[in-house]
What we know:
With about 170 residues, the protein is of the alpha+beta class. It is about 35% helix and about 10% strand. It has one helix at about 50-105; strands at about 135-140, 145-150, 165.
Amino acid sequence: MSCSKCGKESPIGSFFCSNCGADLRGEAVLAPPALSQPAVSEPTKGRVPTWVWVVCVGVVCSCTGPLIFVAIFLPPYLQRESAVRQGEANTNANALASAVQSEAIRTGKYDPAVSNFATELGGAIPLNPCTGTTTGYSITVSGESARVSAIPGTNCGTWTPMVFSLSL
């Protein structure tokens, strides 16, 4: 603290100036201007800044949002797709069964070779969407009867194809 009369520095807490003896008790005890520092708030220890929380929440949402979307909407979509493919496979097997029956009526016997019916089916055997092939059909001949069905394959999940039983 400095004396207001002579300007001499005296130790803080002194009652009188050590140079001129002036009474220092009425003077405010202030740190010298050279020793004063700007006020800086101390960071609160253990507290995470708000911006860190905002960034963390944004990262979590951007990563988990698509996963939640997929988890909710993908299973029903795949079930519908499988059901559509199963229906197409059964429809194609029915068309093949009609061609097999027509040929059997014309020739008097059933032919177990799927590839022999391309002409009757418009020039090509239809694709079995559950196997992804044109050979994904089964013709089982037993005397004067036959059974035609689609082969389940792996693209349609677990299912039992329709069996079209034919007889002469």
